[in-house]
Amino acid sequence: MVTDPLADVRVLRIGDRLAGRTLTRLLTDQGARATVVDLDDPDARAKAIAACAGCDIVVDAGAIGRADAAGLGFDDLAPVRPGLIYCSLPVFPPAPADVAPGAGGASAGRVSAGTVSAGTVSAGTVSAGTVSAGTVSAGTVSAGGVPVDDDIAIAAELGLNFVAGREPRDEELPVGSSFGAFLAAGYVMAALLRVRRDPSGQRIVVPLAAATLTTVARRLIRAADPALVDPVAGPRLPIASRYACSDGCFVQSGGAYSRFVETFVDVIGRPEWRPEAVQALLGLPTAADEAAWRGRLDAVFLERTADEWERAINDAGGSCTRCRTRAEWLAEPHARESGIVVDDGTSIRAGRAVRVFEAAPDGGSPAPRDGGAAQRGDGVAQRGDGVAQRGDTVAEHGDGVAVARNGGGLGDSGSPLRGVVVVDLSIVLAGPTCGRALGDLGADVIKVDDPHRPISPYGWLEVNRGKRSILVDLRRDEGREVLWRMLSGADVLLENYRHGKLDQLGFGFADVARACPGIVYASLNAFDVGGPWAARPGWEHNAQAATGMQLALGGWGPGRPPDQVTYPLNDFGTGLLGAYGILLALRRRDATGAAQFVAGSLARTATFISSPLFEEQAADRAASSVRWLRCPDGYVGVLHSVSGRAASEGGALDGDLIRDAADVAGRAASREEAAERLRASGFGCVVVRGSAELPDRPWVRDSGLVVEWEHPRWGALRQSRARGWATGFEPSPSYPAHDPGQDTSVLLAEHGYDDVDIRRLVESGAVASVPLFEMWSVA
């Protein structure tokens, strides 16, 4: 009988903040059993200590610092339960004086005492760069003594709800709480992997804002070379956009590659547009050209209903999604059949954020690896044809960074995934984000790409740092043999193609599990496994359209047309959840010896993030509305029902209070002055910032959340790096993304190919040894 991955784990949750509730749910959905202690209970301390004696993980979900004040901090509970993992979720990172910036992060001495320096995380103060005066209180960011919802504070600070030229909007999605929980789930699993070998207790601190920085990471990339620009920022074919249809509904069209454009023009009956449209996908000379194309497509989509377009384009192999309401999505057959939405007859809820199977979800049942529950990598541990050895060799990166392949157990020393090999076949964002997260935890990630697929240098750099790269053509027999050799020594295969796509090449789960017993096979796609949409292609915007996000976020124009979340929260969220799923699978693989299948999707992540809005905790979000006030240099947000003045006068900001607040803001010379005056007048408020300000914010700059490299191609390179802090391990120091194909020859040599073999593979086209960006420049 297959048990849930965390069936042997016990969790104690202290308090009720949404981030802590979400983390606890991620754990209990995988079989963990949880006890909840209400800090308002007079017997809270006694109950928590009693429960802690039998638990493995404590989730501090209370108001920041309240657990410590109640005698329920890490220092208090660690002696009760040896090996305890204690996870805190502050809004912002510890003060710069309390956390060593750079690769080292928080020192074990500082965090192991149960605080990140006395009076910082445990006492609830974060002294640098917070949204307000720099303190955290009542479980939320304090704005002049008035508590501010965690997610409102983070959305304003990171500019999630702001697009230049528009008024900010209320951010109903709990993005900060969700991403904090997603990253924390991975850190907690990493700690569980280590606790088997190191029974000392571990303190984990995952600031919500630090985790959420992932969502805007692409906006923060800067390089000295002016040639590095974001290609999607310029005018191009507006195929990935929303269009009104003949029935008044909207569709989200999609297509990032030429074959989708070709399919699209055939379905709409304009095959003569094909050459021009394919060229326009690469870029257009002016914004006027893009507007002309949009006018053409506006007229085309008015020829049929939204359902007719969705059916016709998807049946032809293209990508098109009707923009559904959230209620429509919850009733959609695909959502139910895939398990993304669960209806037990009494309530409707989101399914598991990621699923882990010990057999293929379509019924395949791989045999356990020889040796049953024996640990992987004990000694040489040859797999497949015996070419790849997991001995005590050390493979050097091209830039001199060493990857240990010491054959030890998971998390035996240093980073928790030291010695784990990941073969990353994924593309675009979700899959590469997952691989990057595993690399941050110490895995040796080998990125495998098609030498013929266009790759944007701008997008590549963000999600592929800390990986080695090889270009392999899997359509060729020799290319497939190269991949089999790499898989013979791998722990994880990661892919994010449409469900079933790799089966066509012979690399489906059943095939790989038979050849590589004990492997973890992770599949992250648009619409999940199971259900009628499983094989549909899709991207971030399609998942947003299907699950109700776009219609819920409409309202910036007449008739409330759907609008898109301006950052890829589902792509990045799916990547972090995929890493969590892989860590779950590695833990169970080590216990059972059997191959594991991890399944996640953009639509599943979108539904999970939205779940507080349709499940019971929706009432908790009712007090989150904001009134936005214009200042000379931007906006501040005044909280409605959490304002101190509003609370004392009936719980809402009426017209007089809004006029008072607007008058105060209007007399200020800046956002900062307006916020200071509003707080002094008793209003709760937040300052809305743009992403360009983030690198210089103290909580980002001084916490090692922005790194600067000297890239051999692009020169000085700056990018962000979401992270948490833990006593039991440090994230990998990482390194800038190698060019696609930069490590082809080195990796082939590691897997048993000599110079003659490598020349033969290059000449046949099975691999490419010249980095892809160099191939482009030569062409």
What does this structure look like?
It contains 29 helices and 30 strands. Residues 96-140, 365-413 and 617-624 have low confidence and may be disordered. The strands form 8 sheets. An 8-stranded mixed β-sheet has the order 15-23-22-21-18-19-20-30, sandwiched between helices. Helix 7 runs parallel beside helix 21 and helix 15 packs across helix 21 (569-592). 33% of the residues lie in helices and 16% in strands. A hairpin with a 4-residue loop joins strand 13 (341-343) and strand 14. It has 779 residues and is an alpha/beta fold.
Give a topology summary.
Layout: E1 10-15, H1 18-28, E2 33-37, H2 44-52, E3 57-61, H3 66-69, H4 74-77, E4 85-88, H5 108-112, E5 136-137, E6 140-143, E7 146-148, H6 150-158, H7 175-195, E8 202-205, H8 208-212, E9 222-223, E10 242-244, E11 250-254, H9 258-267, H10 274-282, H11 287-301, H12 306-315, E12 319-322, H13 326-331, H14 333-337, E13 341-343, E14 348-350, E15 355-357, E16 393-396, E17 402-405, E18 421-424, H15 430-440, E19 444-449, H16 457-463, E20 467-472, H17 477-488, E21 492-495, H18 509-515, E22 520-525, H19 540-546, H20 549-552, H21 569-592, E23 596-601, H22 602-610, E24 626-631, E25 634-639, H23 644-648, H24 655-666, H25 671-680, E26 685-687, H26 698-701, E27 706-711, E28 715-720, E29 725-726, H27 744-750, H28 755-764, E30 767-768, H29 772-778
Parallel strand pairs: 1-2, 1-3, 3-4, 4-8, 18-19, 18-21, 19-20, 21-22, 22-23
Antiparallel strand pairs: 5-6, 6-7, 8-29, 9-28, 10-11, 11-12, 13-14, 15-23, 16-17, 20-30, 24-25, 25-26, 27-28
Helix pairs in contact: 1-7, 7-21, 9-10, 15-21, 21-22, 24-25
